[in-house]
Design a protein that fits this description.
3-stranded antiparallel sheet, homodimer
């Protein structure tokens, strides 16, 4: 029997992605976002939604660029911190000890210590209400050698991304491999 | 050292969500989507991206409604099947043996056997390229009594949603609890 929980943003899984930007003065900043997802295959695009009140919002509006950085579960405390503090009054890279790297493709920094990063150029800005969705065209994906699996692609169990449960506000790791897509359903 | 992998939709984690719709004749249909995410808190909205070529695309355009159904890992084969077959030539509910339930709030069915469902009314349609993003206002969230945790909210480890690794095309389960959001990062 299903119980009604009301009109809320309560759905699983949501990602824990760290959005990298430069502010007006060129200071690198990061904020954590769970409101995001891939939204187009061609051109390859990812959408991330930010509140206007965030410091990163102004940076993205100005530079028309951001990175999506996927933290491993070993950095879950840093990821949580990046969602609590504001770049308006903190230098989150310095405080966390993580390293900003200037993207050569877009006007934004990525996080050296995070194993998987996307460099994105803003191609759409959609006002949805409390949040604005930035659609970024993915110009490149970069991954650490250490997380590569067979076929030269990142292995989920080496990247070890974090999953967020909204409303209950808890982080989870990745579990076991459940099978191959476009394959295990062919029995039907 | 990071290696460039090119411009592609390769990011972790992505969700495995099953989108429920009625076609012109009122036949219930489901398709699996990994291109989606929450995109606004107020109004509460979720975005899902579909190719125009899918059968579900026409149904959403016509009915302006869809459901987002979160399958448990026990139903990973059904979820994969829903992404392989087309509602144009298959009755996916009949073939899988799952049960469509008519939403009382929107003109779309949800999957009785899936523990967490969102009933959505389309409020924006964004043409992005190969994919069109439908932004649905979440009118209600419904969850099975059996997956509720403390505080009367769904427990991630009871819902047991599926995570997808795009490009490598593999499904994964949820791992262990890594801590509390807006809390574990306060040490910095």
């Amino acid at each position: 029997m299903k119980k009604s929980l009301g009109a809320k943003t309560l759905v699983y899984p949501t990602p824990v992605w760290v959005i990298g930007t430069y502010d007006k003065e060129g200071k690198p900043n990061v904020m954590t976002a769970a409101w995001g997802g891939v939204c187009c295959s061609q051109p390859p695009c990812v959408g991330v939604s930010l509140r206007k009140a965030t410091y990163s919002f102004g940076s993205i509006m100005e530079r028309k660029a951001f990175t999506v950085n996927v933290p491993s579960d070993a950095h879950v405390r840093e990821a949580d911190y990046f969602g609590i503090a504001s770049g308006r009054d903190s230098d989150k890279f310095s405080v966390s000890g993580l390293t900003p790297v200037k993207s050569e493709l877009v006007d934004a920094p990525y996080v050296e210590e995070f194993p998987l990063v996307l460099e994105c150029r803003v191609i759409h800005t959609f006002e949805l209400g409390l949040h604005t969705q930035f659609v970024g065209e993915i110009l490149d994906v970069k991954a650490d050698d250490s997380v590569m699996g067979k076929g030269g692609l990142p292995d989920m169990l080496k990247v070890r991304p974090i999953v967020f449960a909204p409303t209950v506000r808890k982080y989870y790791g990745i579990g076991k491999n459940l099978g191959k897509g476009y394959a295990i359903g062919k029995e039907f």
